[in-house]
Amino acid sequence: MLHLSFPNISHKTEFISMIEEWKSFEDTPTSPDTIFYGNTYEEFLERVYSELHNPPPGYVPATLFFIMEWSRILGAIHIRHNIDTPFLAKIWGHIGYGIRPSERNKWHATEWLRLWLIEAKNLWINQVMIWCYDDNIWSYRTIEKNNGKLDRYEDYNGKLARIYTIDL
Ligand SMILES: CC(C)(COP(=O)(O)OP(=O)(O)OC[C@H]1O[C@@H](n2cnc3c(N)ncnc32)[C@H](O)[C@@H]1OP(=O)(O)O)[C@@H](O)C(=O)NCCC(=O)NCCS
Fold this sequence. Notes:
With about 170 residues, this protein is an alpha+beta fold. It contains 5 helices and 7 strands; from the N terminus they run E-H-H-E-E-H-E-H-E-H-E-E. The strands form 2 sheets. The chain has a 4-stranded antiparallel β-sheet with strand order 1-2-3-4, sandwiched between helices. A 3-stranded antiparallel β-sheet has the order 5-7-6, sandwiched between helices.
């Protein structure tokens, strides 16, 4: 059963195997950034807790969940609680997410995003903003199948980025 889980020490072995798999694939985007933070699982966990409870200067509070099927980590989602900084409002928006390479193209991201949008509506967000690069067809199809509306294009890192909104 697909579900979201907040990271804890019991996920360590499964997490390490996911990251090793991810790094063995070349040229695949590494998103969300936080799962690649630090050199050890413990450093990653500390980062997750500090982003939630005591964000670094200039950051807004954010929650990271693993996307899981039973005990297997399929990927992760990073949710910014608001987009009240110029950079988040311009490009990054509320959500970053990724599915490990061996689990892609099985509609996990599409289904997961649908479930999470139901939760977001019950929580605190009226309109979700999500971005991806213009050549990331997998990501923008996931967003569009969840009623994402293309709001605008931005230049980011010298590449064209798509900015979507989803009304909840
Ligand atoms: C973007 C990402 C999360 C999509 O996850 P996913 O679970 O594979 O997505 P889904 O299986 O739900 O598929 C979404 C759409 O992309 C299409 N798709 C998925 N993998 C594909 C592939 N290898 N080739 C062509 N189309 C593909 C699917 O067919 C589907 O579209 P459709 O139903 O209209 O045909 C995943 O590719 C990923 O983690 N990429 C690296 C990180 C990243 O780019 N994150 C987003 C940053 S903004």
